[in-house]
Design brief:
The protein starts with 5 loop residues before the first strand and ends with a helix. The protein folds into two domains: 70 residues, Alpha-Beta Plaits (2-Layer Sandwich); 195 residues, Up-down Bundle (Rhomboid-like fold). The protein contains eleven helices and three strands. By secondary structure, the protein is mainly alpha-helical. The chain has a three-stranded antiparallel sheet with strand order 1-3-2, with helices on one face.
């Protein structure tokens, strides 16, 4: 997943870029600065930001702008690009549709579960019954189903928080592939321990995205992947506490701890591979 860098500006080698680099960091812009002859070349990772960064650099160098917005930015470039994250937005919409199907007990809901059908619950049947029938979409679709307002609200907030960042850095197709892999892996793990009890939710994917962002951010120092220092140990601790059954009692049902943990570990694995490739 190595990324190209795109030239956005050239400034004199004698120019102190401290204020300009501070502005780039405040806007969450992944950047590089290199000395080439008598010039300092500023490159950015996102080609869509080349014109914006180049314009700001030119105005700052000519004294038109003093970059005061670097201290108190009204809107970061990451926030501006939220609307251009189609994969994350599409997944959020599908999750809300899944929540509506569960709430209304629509027949379509049963076609999205990992396993369903009277034959699947006969003696000798297993979690793979429907998959063996060629219904391969069931490997993914349980992530859309949500049981209750708290369930969908919690997962939607985290999915947006993490998904927008990943899509801004790695683009739509890579983000989609990552989400599908995390969904399939966490669903399979949960199905093996939950059969024949139905399960659903995108939280296995969310835990995977969280550990992915944390580890890639740690390895590459990607500005958009920098999370509050206390967040990773807190989320990890809550995941372990959930295994005690405490959250089952609060939620009034069984929490998919296996999906959470397996998704979390898969995210770390993908994050390690991505981080090492990106650094190289």
């Amino acid at each position: 997943m190595a990324q190209d860098w795109y030239e956005a500006a050239r400034l004199p080698a004698t120019k102190d870029l401290g204020a300009f680099i501070g502005w780039l960091k405040s806007q969450g812009v992944a950047h590089q600065v290199s000395l080439e002859g008598s010039q300092q070349v500023v490159r950015v990772r996102d080609p869509e930001l080349v014109d914006k960064v180049g314009q700001v650099a030119s105005e700052w160098h000519e004294g038109v702008s003093n970059l005061v917005e670097a201290d108190q930015p009204k809107q970061s470039l990451l926030q501006i690009k939220v609307a251009s994250a189609p994969v994350t937005l599409a997944l959020l919409c599908l999750c809300f549709i899944g929540f509506a199907l569960v709430s209304t007990r629509s027949d379509l809901m049963y076609d999205l579960l990992f396993y369903h059908g009277m034959r699947a619950f006969q003696p000798g049947a297993d979690a793979w019954f429907n998959i063996h029938q060629g219904e391969y979409w069931r490997l993914v679709t349980p992530i859309f189903l949500h049981y209750g307002l708290v369930h969908i609200a919690f997962n939607a907030l985290w999915l947006g928080f993490l998904g927008f960042r990943i899509e801004a850095v790695y683009g739509g197709w890579r983000t989609l592939l990552l989400m599908i892999l995390l969904g399939v892996i966490s669903n399979i793990a949960q199905a093996l321990v939950s059969f024949p009890i139905a399960f659903g939710g995108v939280s296995g994917v969310v835990y995977g995205l969280f550990s992915f962002v944390w580890l890639v951010g740690l390895l590459t120092r990607e500005p958009r992947f920098q999370l509050p220092p206390a967040l990773f140990p807190l989320v990890s601790l809550l995941m372990l506490i959930s295994w005690t059954g405490l959250f089952d009692a609060i939620a009034g049902g069984e929490v998919a701890d296996t999906a959470h943990t397996v998704g979390y570990l898969a995210g770390l694995s993908f994050g390690l591979i991505t981080g090492l490739i990106t650094r190289k």
